[in-house]
Amino acid sequence: MQLSEYCRPFIRANKPWPKFPLPIEASITWWQNWIIRTPPINYFSALRNELPQLWIMPREGASNSEVYKRLVLKGEVPNPSDRDSALHLNDPDGFVVSLVDHPCGTFPVIDINDQIDFLNVVRCLAYKCELESIQESVHAQAVSGLIHWGLIKMINKDERSQLIILHNAPYSSLQESVVPGKPTWYQWLLLSRRWRLEHELTHLATKLLAGEMRLNLFDELIADTLGMLFAIDTFSADLFIKGLGISVDGNLKEGGRCHTYIKQLEQKDSQAAIKFVVDRAYELEELLSTGLLRSERLPLLKYLIRQQLDKTFLVASSKLDFYIGNPL
Question: Could you count the other beta carbons within 10 Å of the beta carbon of residue 313?
């Protein structure tokens, strides 16, 4: 990918927004009913009958296999051989399904305790059961456009699902000692879930409101800003940069999240993108800390999706009066 394409604005950045809150979709009614009738101990075993991707143990070439075509693309019932070779969880009790509300809608969330279980579920649902490499500091994934046979059967053949997958771990593998307020380890674990959930909800919101949910450093800045503010009531550029795995000299740490978001760029363009996101993070911290930019969820999101990774954040323009310092 060219750097200019990587840094371009969201395709619908300036389109009008709908009225909030949005109405509940038929797909969420399905999830509500499913949660009511499904005992928590059966969440995983019951859900893979609707999301047959979860029958398949991730492996190379899985998305082109006959079993994937039968179970996922055609919605066939798994045969004894499929069941014998199926994905199994290390901690089935640590697989929890819930619904969360956001102005942009209600979304199903899967919380997972075991890291290996988390990686396998993400590979099944986000990567079509392929053995995708996932950085060790990644503990969440928003998925959109997911084949879901429960929804297809209830609504129509074109219906697709969105959901969020969360691993119960410190955010971006950060130690509690670097977090403002110096929380205990247990407090940091709870705050991490708040941050992680709001981060993924923001990705889904940008898809709805700005037309895209991109694997991109600017999208990470937006999502981490909303997530950090929701969890710890402040935005720290230093903490954001540490969470990406960027060192003080601009180099990347092994296993850092940043690798995920620049792998489509050439090395020189990757370095430019990293510098851009560091610069934007410190600009954003200044705008928020001085009160020039509102920290409320929707006004801040509206401002951020109209900015660009490679351009200094605007602070003095009549075009911004609509969402800086004034009501929406």
Answer: 18
Nearest-Å Rg of the Cα atoms of the chain is: 20
Dihedral class, residue 105 (left if φ above 0, else alpha if ψ from -120 to 50, else beta):
left
Query: Which parts of 199-304 are beta strand (E)?
Result: none
What is the chain's length?
Answer: 328
What pLDDT, in 10s, does the model give residues 220-262? Answer: 999 999 999 999 999 999 999 999 999 877 789 888 899 999 9
12 and 210 Cβ atoms separated by less than 8 Å: yes
Buried b (16+ CB within 10 A) or exposed e, 37-72: eeeeeebbeebbebbbbbbbbbeeebbeeebbebbb
Sequence letter at residue 41:
I
What percentage of the chain's residues is helix, strand, coil (to nearest 5)?
Answer: 50, 10, 40
| Contact yes or no for 55/75 (Cβ under 8 A) | no
Q: Is 99 helix (H, G, I), strand (E, B) or coil?
A: strand
Cβ distance 108 to 164 under 8 Å? yes
Residue 21 preceded by cis peptide, ω within 30: yes
Query: pLDDT category, 323, cuts 50, 70, 90?
Result: very low
Both tokens assigned to 155: 């609504």
Cα separation, 146 vs 322, whole angstroms: 36
Phi, psi of 10 (to 5 degrees): -60, 145
CA-based nearest residue to 277, from 320, 222, 327: 222
From the DSSP assignment, how many helices (H) and strands (E) are in the chain?
13, 4
Contact 264, 223 (CB under 8 A): no
Q: Count of CB atoms within 10 A of residue 305's CB?
A: 23
Angstrom distance (rounded) from CA 112 to CA 96: 7
Q: 77: alpha, beta or left, given left = phi > 0 and alpha = psi -120 to 50?
A: beta
In this predicted model, what pLDDT tens digit does every residue of 7-35 receive, in sequence order? Answer: 999 999 999 999 998 888 999 999 999 99
